[in-house]
Specification:
- InterPro entries: HotDog_dom_sf (IPR029069), MaoC-like_dom (IPR002539), MFE-2_N (IPR054357).
- This is Acyl dehydratase.
- One of its GO terms (molecular function) is (3S)-3-hydroxyacyl-CoA dehydrogenase (NAD+) activity.
- It comes from Kibdelosporangium aridum.
- This protein has a single domain, classed as Roll (Thiol Ester Dehydrase, Chain A).
- The chain contains seven helices and twelve strands.
- By secondary structure, the chain is α+β, with helices and mostly antiparallel strands.
- The chain is 19% helix and 37% strand.
- The strands form two sheets. A ten-stranded antiparallel β-sheet has the order 1-5-6-7-4-9-12-11-10-8. A two-stranded antiparallel ribbon has the order 2-3.
Length: 283
């Protein structure tokens, strides 16, 4: 079915109530590589119940954390083959540090559909509130659907984050594990692109790729640890654009510039860009 922006834009994707526990938070952190140094007090705040803190990026995955089936891209005005889909952009703003345990309700809608010619971009916004109705966080995300453009829609904005013209203030090296995607899929994303070599080959990749949201979480943690001393309460948001794929086992190289209430970040593998237009916003 062709994408129909007149139906898709503004469409509600419904409301869902979900819960999480400290065990879910611990699994998420471990799937990002937390606890690599089991003697580190900073790492143990991610990997044990004692003084547990929650990365802001957990809010992005929390609504679907218990999912065990591959996702489907089937929404009003949108019907896309999963093999054509890549994550485009992701942003979260937390209105206060996320609790280690909560019940929340999230409402989601499609805010834009853009026609990039050979691809389509679908943008969503979601707002989560706690059981008393108080705001927890807001997310904005986009998916990039290869081969689904050409329907005559707007190309959309092309704004980018300008990085300082100087050497970075921090350079952070973060290795990933060969089995990283197999761990991370337990956090609710069972897309076979990240686990099935045959599915990945059919999608045009030599082997399964790491989840974009896994890279997103790993880099957020790396910046919080490397610049903020591991204190997640100093971060109020994290936004990025996915610029390239990561294969499990590769090492991420994040360059960070301090600028007022923002930390500006680029991430690459060797000379291959992975995350661009990346900003960690400070409280």
């Amino acid at each position: 079915m062709p994408i129909d922006p007149s139906v898709a834009v503004g469409a509600s994707l419904g409301e869902a109530t979900f819960s999480w526990t400290p065990s879910d938070v611990l699994l998420y952190h471990l799937a990002l590589g937390a606890g690599a140094d089991p003697m580190s007090e900073v790492e143990l705040r991610y990997a044990t119940e004692s003084d547990l803190q929650v990365l802001p990026t957990f809010g992005v995955v929390a609504p679907n954390f218990k999912q065990t089936k591959p996702p489907a891209v089937s929404w009003p005005g949108v019907e896309i083959d999963l093999a054509k889909v890549l994550h485009g952009q992701q942003e979260i703003t937390v209105h206060r540090p996320l609790p280690t345990e909560a019940t929340a309700t999230i409402t989601t809608r499609i805010t834009d559909v853009f026609d990039k010619g050979k691809a389509a971009v679908i943008v969503q916004k979601a707002t989560a509130v706690d059981s008393s109705g108080e705001p927890l966080y807001t997310t904005r995300s986009s998916i990039f659907a290869r081969g689904e453009g050409g329907f005559g829609g707007s190309r959309g904005p092309s704004a980018s984050v300008e990085m300082p013209d100087r050497v970075p203030d921090f350079v952070l090296e973060t290795p990933t594990l060969p089995q990283q995607a197999l761990l991370y899929r337990l956090c609710g994303d069972r897309n076979p692109l990240h686990s099935d070599p045959r599915f990945a080959a059919a999608a045009g990749f030599p082997k399964p790729i790491l989840h974009g949201l896994c890279t997103y979480g790993i880099v957020c943690k790396a910046v919080i640890d490397g610049v903020l001393g591991g204190d997640v309460s100093q971060a109020s948001g994290f936004a990025t654009r996915f610029a390239g794929v990561v294969y499990p086992g590769e090492t991420l190289r994040s360059q960070v510039w301090q600028e007022d209430k923002r930390l500006l970040v680029t991430c690459s593998v060797d000379d291959r860009p992975v995350l661009t237009d990346t900003v960690l916003t400070l409280c």
